[in-house]
Please model this.
Amino acid sequence: MVRVKPFAAIRPPKNLVTEVAAPPYDVLNSQEALAMAGEKSLLHITKPEIDFQPIAGEHEQRTYDKAVENFKAWKAKGWLVQDSKEKYYVYAQTMGDRTQYGLVLCAHTDDYANGIIKKHELTRKDKEDDRMVHVRIQNANIEPVFFAYKDNEELNAIVAKAAAQEPEYKFVDENHFTHTFWVIEDDAVIRRITEIFTKDIDAFYVADGHHRTAAAARVGAEKKVQNPHHTGNEEYNFFMAVCFPQSHLAIIDYNRVVKDLNGLSKEAFFQALEKDFEIQEKGKEIYHPCGLHNFSMYLEGAWYSLTAKPGRYNDEDPIGVLDVTILSNLVLDKILGIKDLRTDKRIDFVGGIRGLGELSRRVDSGEMKVAFALYPVSMQQLINIADTGNIMPPKTTWFEPKLRSGLAIHSLD
Model:
């Protein structure tokens, strides 16, 4: 079972939350962050390179020093204030007509090392190293990771009761997503939340934040070695996560655009596709995949439906059944010669939040030759893959909305 604890969050006063809260560090480049960041924005802490003119390098020592300086200044000025006791928090995100409710808590680094916190993506050491630096220099988890867990009726009821109260924060961001935040103060409720996770929740699943999770675990291991009196209960053994029940989450499609047809004419490309797919032309109106193993393709001003023929995939294999695997094996690799999705410069990826119109726009502009849209992966597929110790192909899942940074920070002291 998972190990969790409440924590005394460092967070903005209610009247400052919209000025402090910011998008996560990895959804903005430095120029975008500079344009967005007001005086009190957390971006001065998560992307401190924007405080230099010209913008500094993200990995320069002066940039790291500025991050530490700004974090201290925000606390000294009262723009970030630590709660007086350990608590749990409820964080809700609303996009359109869908709201997902998560518990903000601290997970234990040992659970990651022991495989109780389960991943579905590979991580890169250089990106882990980068996140480790930020945790180490601040001695804090400035931004949370995003976990899922299998539904528990009592936890759902506790969260629903908390969310029926007046929220601590509620605001709408620049993408028109609503963020709502409640504080759980009652000691008996706090104890019960801890008990339920400890007794009834067998795993966390990393939805978003694989590198931050790995970095937090590595910092915890580092501090363990440095402490001759280590017990496993020190604050550095824990890191901040927002944990959502499985039923609240929906994965958005993650689509592909390719620069060329690998030297093939349109006719030869279609002849190659016909060996593994049933093809229907759909015209100029955007066509969305209608189910698993059905793809939409945009080429030379027209949309097409591609349906994988029986026998071309393995429904009994948690990886082989994925549409990203089918497309990679039967089209990207077999026909277009794209062997490594992580490194090939001929392919790019477009999150479904941008809509399929973004695919046709990039093809019509001449930047790309062909686009493919995929039916979204389900949460159950993600859990099946993580439970079996498998790893999804790159760029398979897209979660939206992104967690807002600055609503809570976890100190490792």
In short: The chain has a mean pLDDT of 96. The first strand starts at residue 4 and ends at 5.
